[in-house]
User: Fold Enoyl-CoA delta isomerase 1, mitochondrial from Drosophila willistoni.
Amino acid sequence: MLRSSLLTLTRIGSNRLMSTAAKLTTVEVNDKTGIATLTMCRPPVNGLNLELLKDLSQSIDEIESNKSRGLILTSSNPTIFSAGLDILEMYKPDKERIRAFWTSLQDVWLALYGSSVPTAAAINGHSPAGGCLLATSCEYRVMLPKFTIGLNETQLGIVAPKWFMSSFLSVLPRRIAERALNQGRMFTTEEALQVGLIDEVANTKEEAIEKCSAFIGSFAKVNPLARALTKQQFRAADLQQLENERVQDLEKFLFFVNQPAVQKGLGLYLESLKKKAKN
Ligand SMILES: CCCCCCCCCC/C=C\CC(=O)SCCNC(=O)CCNC(=O)[C@H](O)C(C)(C)COP(=O)(O)OP(=O)(O)OC[C@H]1O[C@@H](n2cnc3c(N)ncnc32)[C@H](O)[C@@H]1OP(=O)(O)O
Assistant:
């Protein structure tokens, strides 16, 4: 398979480390537990660009087909889980590339939210917008203190599509989800725990991964097929909706993102991020 030829396989202690040639993600399988840790490593902020999204897709597929016992999603950056979509993909976009970009984001969501293996996110840093989408696509979330998580799209003058809302709603009560989305609210770790956006707090990344592993281990005595089919039935309507509307969703996104007012807003937001980075 093409994917196999892109992978290098290394052994670290009892763990197998698979990394893509471009190294935007690594997959490390713990030989004792059979759990795969998928790490995003795109400096400086794990911005989800086309290449990172393609890598994520491939890694998730790899984990599914390797029959890993579970998937833990995390980041190699010590303070950022993911800064969400790379705004440079949406600002003054290239016509063909932006299509591939959005299609890849759809692929990642369908693969992660619909994954047949148990999934957990070790959120070891800030997790705005697309970062929050990834985390809420998993079944369990453990976050480190003093970071923020949320869908802040309205703060940027953009709108989170329905399937972003589906993931959010699979975690939060409707009233809290609706208000947070309308406000574009970012929750601190403590606030996220209080509303149920995350399940646990851990003091270190290692502890977060241990807690995620314990969650995945809680299914050890459950029939894997029964568990996977039950999970998929819970998520089927959300997944089917995007499957049915993929093309329309892409066209809506392209129309929206190309509006002059949206382009202006994204430009100003990028400038403000760059100014902040200089100070
Ligand atoms: C009706 C239905 C219609 C449907 C229409 C659909 C519309 C589109 C929907 C799109 C959905 C999702 C949107 C997103 O995910 S947008 C991204 C949102 N993300 C953010 O707002 C986060 C912004 N970043 C930050 O808050 C901070 O950077 C940070 C993550 C908290 C990290 O802080 P830091 O102090 O550690 O780092 P900082 O100095 O800020 O940044 C370092 C460099 O990285 C650049 N950068 C940061 N974030 C992004 C990003 N998301 N994209 C691109 N670049 C980013 C930043 O500019 C710095 O760059 P440089 O070093 O100055 O060059």
In short: The chain has one domain: 8-278.
